[in-house]
Write a structure and sequence with these properties.
The chain has 374 residues and is an alpha+beta fold. The protein is 21% helix and 35% strand. The chain folds into 2 domains: 235 residues, Thrombin, subunit H (Beta Barrel); 93 residues, PDZ domain (Pdz3 Domain). The chain is built from 6 helices and 21 strands. Strand 2 and strand 3 form a beta hairpin.
Amino acid sequence: MRKLLVLLTILLVFVGVWTIAAGIFERLGPGTIKPTESLKVISEESVVIKAVKEVGPSVVTVAEAPGQRRSSGPFSIFEIPDLAQEEGEPINIGSGFIVSSDGFIVTNKHVVSDSRVRYQVITSNEKVYEVERVVRDPLNDIAILKINPLLNPGEALVPVTLGDSSNLQVGQFVIAIGTALGEFRNTVTTGVISGLGRGIVAGDTFRGYVERLDNVIQTDAAINPGNSGGPLLNSDGQVIGINTAISRAGQNIGFALPVNVVKDVLANFNEHGQIERPYLGVAYRMIGRNTALLNNIPQGALVERIIDGSPADRAGIRPGDIIVSISGVKLEEGKLDLAGALLTKKVGDNIEIEIRREDETITLRATLAPAPEQ
């Protein structure tokens, strides 16, 4: 009898819980989002809103000062907006973000590529600053702008927080902020990281100027003309990349330079007062393992062009040579290219270069010079 009472009690409790749950779902109605899904959506919206509120004031518009004739830049894939400049009005050409309260801003080099042009920075609350100095990285599509924060003493320049791009994951949620189409300031788009370690050739072959960008982040967050130089954020509002290029052949395919490259550039600048890079002076393409096996040649950097008067020129390197190693360190596609090997060196270093010239292995020496500003 006692067991029967226990069973009846359990059954009544189960029926009661089922009735209550059925009543709740009946009031919610069919097709209603489940509470867990609703919480997920609200959380994602909150993340974006919080990040934009925190970082938005640190995102700026880069413009050409009024009264100038814009020269078309060489980088068509870099999507500089083609807008007519009204008399007396600056023309917005890109984005940037504040990295220090004393007036340093990071943007893309291609945004401020013309050394003859005067540039301005416009903050999110419409304050205008003249750019006093432009420092361009010879090896990366990065530039540092200097403005005077005392020009608007009532406005504090709030720097962004730089994250870490070494532990990014494909599928990770990201937020992009920038001046879309050179007109709509602080435009926010969201998406995911679509790929990592991409290598792209950006520029315009018809104008005879292209630039190889390696190890870039691919994202489907909408990046439009004018977004160049703006930040790519993670869900914590940290900058994990600098929006750089779009693919004109596809949809929702954008690229950003990893923030660790930006951090390296800033450290270099803080140490030297400029961006000092070791320079060999060759244009090259990497020969991978399969190509090397098929052609019975070593892996390495195939020299396509030598810059006149460069360390490579003085060392006796020729077009057609294959650079196999730098100071004993082998070059391998996907592991270590020539640019990466040179970044481990300093200006003034004397390096040993092993090359394959036709069927002969030759060792040359070169002294690395400072890379000329582009």
